[in-house]
Amino acid sequence: MHGSTVVLTSLFTSIIATVGTMYFIERYDILHKDAPPETVVPDFRGVPESDARANAAAAHIALLVGAREPSPDVKAGSVIRQSTPPGQHVARDYPVTITLAEEMLRVPGVEGLATADAKQKLDDRGYTSELAMVPSDTVDQGIVLDQVPKANVVLAKGGVVRLQISNGPDVIEVPKLIGTSISEAQKALDKLKLKSVVRWISVGETPTYVVLNQKPAAAEKVKPGTEVQLTACR
User: Fold this and answer.
1) DSSP string of the chain?
2) Sign of the C-alpha dihedral, residues 147, 148, 153, 159?
3) What is the pLDDT of residues 101-154, one digit of tens each?
4) Residues 6+ apart with CB under 8 A from 193
5) For the chain, how long is the longest CA-to-CA vector?
6) What is the model's pLDDT at position 97?
7) Which candidate, 127, 24, 41, 32, places its Cα nearest to that of 88?
């Protein structure tokens, strides 16, 4: 057989084989037969969990809840973010993790409540209370005067709420001053924010500059600024 004829025959045979192979592939979809079907990830952000699950089922997405956290911008129970961006092509039943918004915890109002009731109310919300006793001429002893943070302020669970508790009227117990020197007695009264008034007398054979008597008497309860009269000889 002539050489050129052999070449042409081989070329013709190769073309027929190629065309036949391509027809067979297209006819029976061999290349795509094993490729998994794809889907597009929906945008779940800002969507309530029930709607997000419905959208995920329709798109053949496996939706997983990864975490819950408070959010000032997203309504409680709705999606804050998702692990796979929306619009991305993925295989069917591809897992997408979402983070759901929790209700923002707010501090309850406890001003005006008894100390035990205020502490219980804060405990029920998961808060810790710190107490400070302060005097008050208008609020009964044991009642909450003030709170920090104030009511309805957003505060994470476990946060501390500081309470000022009325200790009743601000009173001071007058110390025993009889027998002490006038100067020591005056220093003691100044330290307690009480005023000293000295009443001088002259009595023979009596120690001088020593408190002989006091009014109010020792252990009496008085308000700050009350005058304490000291009797002494000089």
Assistant:
1) --HHHHHHHHHHHHHHHHHHHHHHHHHHTTTTTTSPPEEE----TT-BHHHHHHHHHHTTEEEEEEEEEE-SSS-TTBEEEESS-TT-EEETTEEEEEEEEEPPPBPPP-TTSBHHHHHHHHHHTT-EEEEEEE--SSS-TTBEEEEESPTT-B--TT-EEEEEEE--S--EEPPP-TTSBHHHHHHHHHHTT-EEEEEEE--TT--BTBEEEEESPTT-EE-TT-EEEEEEE-
2) negative
3) 998 899 999 999 999 999 999 999 999 999 999 999 899 999 999 999 999 999
4) 172, 224, 225
5) 163
6) 98
7) 41
- Which pair of tokens denotes residue 38? 């794809």
For 35, counting Cβ atoms within 10 Å of its Cβ (0-12 exposed, 13-18 middle, 19+ buried), the class is exposed
**Considering the entire predicted model, what is its pTM?**
0.50
> Whose CA is closest to 144, among 129, 159, 157?
129
Residue pointed to by tokens 């001053």: 177
Query: Do you know the residue count of the chain?
Result: 234
